[in-house]
């Protein structure tokens, strides 16, 4: 059973359907026992950093998430709150990844970064035997919608360029985070999600 | 570098994709969910579904259609048509829409843009503007192009941006349906005035129109309906052509 963590914000309809299409049962929950008992955990990608952290704290989920031993996937804001700090709302986050989340910007760069962009470093990722990008080509396009992004640091597996080069996939132990939305990224996204749901080991 | 997006638009009436001129002579084109899936497989980057039903029954049918689209589609989609309140927007979000497009209701009450953007984020709000050129300025039209909104186009687009719109979808009514190319100069001016993405609509007739548009205007996306529905410009062919012109596009390898 896949647990999709419910922190009371917007639309997780597409994510639920993508997991279902991948052939996995899921539950949308904020119950710590249910989360701990699941095979995979997903933190979905909706909301604003300080609000999402408030929702996590009000449900006493921070420790539960940090101590999970099963594969955990954070998507977009779900990944950002797994970092150490976000400039969005000046928010202290879960510090699973040591990277900070910074505001995107630069000359002539439209914010939010919205649309399809390339994910680089896939070849290197697969060289590590990580498996998350199995069947996905170097420089493949994924779908992004965000205004903040992780800086480049030790957890960064793939990068994407938009004004600056930022971390588009982060990994550490059993935790993975993506700035892109696999549930909206066509066939490549479905493949990524499938790879994640089929893994049972650390990265 | 973000890819330039290609967006097929599906007009939906009583649950069917239709094609017509000014809501007359509606011709059924097929099941919107199946067509969406087909476009996604062909490499469409996003889809727009417009509800052109005039009745409450039609609106209800549309909402259940949005749910079916959301459970099938693996790319983002925008829905528009008849959204008058923030609650209408909320119902569409809960049904799985990635973005909504506001048009006439935003002209009647511009604060609607702020309300929806504040609640769900700017990325959720597309403001669609239909305009036509009359003597010395672009006039904004409302109610499906039937009424003048008494607003100047560039000024309204700027206001929509400052109120929190995440994207502007501009349809030139002078170009729409002509298949003679997009309103490139007007779009270039619009892009120079705004800091949010612009989607061009109206006038697509052949692949060259898309390359002219992307090379000369700075728009982020192009929307079209009949060239895709009728198969005159198949999306895979179009994308390969645009790539050969040096325009960044997402080519799906599967």
Give short descriptive properties of this protein.
heterodimer; A: 203 residues; alpha/beta; Rossmann fold; seven-stranded mixed sheet; 13 strands; B: 254 residues; TIM Barrel; eight-stranded parallel β-barrel; 10 helices
Textual characterization of the structure:
- The complex is a heterodimer of chains A (203) and B (254).
- Helices cover 25% and strands 29% of the residues of chain A.
- With 203 residues, chain A is of the alpha/beta class.
- Chain A starts with a strand and ends in a 6-residue tail after the last helix.
- In chain B, 38% of the residues lie in helices and 28% in strands.
- Chain B is α/β, with parallel strands linked by helices.
- The two termini of chain B are 22 Å apart.
- Chain B has an eight-stranded parallel β-barrel with strand order 1-4-5-6-7-10-11-12, surrounded by seven helices.
- Chain B has helices spanning 32-42, 56-72, 86-94, 104-108, 111-120, 153-162, 184-193, 207-217, 226-229, 235-244; strands spanning 5-13, 16-21, 24-30, 47-51, 77-80, 99-102, 125-134, 137-142, 147-152, 167-172, 198-201, 221-224.
- Chain A binds chain B through residues 10-11, 13-14, 17-18, 20-21, 48, 110-118, 137, 141, 143-145, 161-162, 183-190, and chain B through 1-3, 5, 40, 45, 67, 70-72, 74-76, 93-98, 120-123, 166-167, 195-197, 220-221, 250, 252-254.
> Largest sheet of chain B, described in full?
8 strands, parallel, barrel
Q: From the alpha-carbon coordinates, what is the Rg of chain B to the nearest angstrom?
A: 17 Å
How many helices of chain B does DSSP assign?
Answer: 10
What global shape of chain B is seen? globular
* Strand proportion of chain B: 25-35%
Overall 3D shape of chain A: globular
- What fraction, in percent, of the residue positions of chain A are helical? 25-40%
Percentage of residues in DSSP E strands of chain A: 25-35%
CATH topology of chain B: TIM Barrel
């Amino acid at each position: 059973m896949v647990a999709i963590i419910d922190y009371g914000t917007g639309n997780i309809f597409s994510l639920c359907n993508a997991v279902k299409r991948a052939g996995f049962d899921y539950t949308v929950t904020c119950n710590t026992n249910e989360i701990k008992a699941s095979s995979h955990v997903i933190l979905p990608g909706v909301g604003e950093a300080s609000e999402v952290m408030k929702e996590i704290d009000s449900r006493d989920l921070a420790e539960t998430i940090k101590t999970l031993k099963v594969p955990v996937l954070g998507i977009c804001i779900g990944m950002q709150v797994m970092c150490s700090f976000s400039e969005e709302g000046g928010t202290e986050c879960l510090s699973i990844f040591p990277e900070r989340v910074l505001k995107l910007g630069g000359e002539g760069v439209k914010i939010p970064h919205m649309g399809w962009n390339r994910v680089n470093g896939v070849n290197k990722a697969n060289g590590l035997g990580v498996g998350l990008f199995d069947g996905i080509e170097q420089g493949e396009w994924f779908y992004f919608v965000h205004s903040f992004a992780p800086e480049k640091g030790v957890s960064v597996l793939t990068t994407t360029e938009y004004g600056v080069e930022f971390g588009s996939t982060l990994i550490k132990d059993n935790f993975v985070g993506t700035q892109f939305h696999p549930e909206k990224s066509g066939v490549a996204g479905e493949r990524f999600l499938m790879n994640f749901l089929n893994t049972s080991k650390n990265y | 570098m973000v890819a330039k997006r290609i967006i097929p638009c599906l007009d939906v009436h009583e649950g069917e994709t239709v094609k017509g001129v000014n809501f007359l002579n509606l011709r059924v084109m097929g099941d919107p969910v199946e067509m969406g899936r087909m476009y996604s497989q062909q490499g469409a980057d996003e889809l727009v579904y417009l509800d052109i039903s005039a009745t409450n029954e039609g609106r209800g049918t549309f909402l259940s259609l949005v749910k079916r689209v959301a459970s099938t589609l693996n790319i983002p989609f925008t829905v528009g048509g008849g959204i008058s309140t923030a609650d209408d927007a909320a119902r569409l979000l809960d049904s799985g829409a990635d973005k909504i497009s506001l048009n006439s209701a935003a002209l009647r009450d511009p604060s609607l843009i702020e309300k929806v953007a504040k609640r769900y984020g700017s990325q959720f709000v597309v403001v669609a503007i239909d305009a036509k050129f009359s003597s010395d300025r672009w006039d904004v039209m409302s109610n499906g192009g039937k009424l003048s909104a008494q607003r100047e186009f560039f000024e309204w687009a700027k206001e929509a941006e400052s109120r929190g719109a995440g994207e502007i979808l501009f349809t030139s009514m002078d170009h729409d349906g002509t298949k003679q190319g997009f309103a490139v100069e007007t779009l270039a001016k619009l892009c120079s005035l705004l800091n949010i993405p612009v989607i061009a609509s109206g006038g697509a007739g052949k692949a060259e129109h898309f390359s002219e548009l992307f090379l000369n205007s700075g728009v982020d996306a192009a929307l079209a309906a009949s060239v895709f529905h009728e198969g005159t410009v198949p999306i895979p062919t179009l994308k390969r052509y645009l790539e050969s012109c040096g325009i960044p596009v997402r080519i799906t390898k599967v």
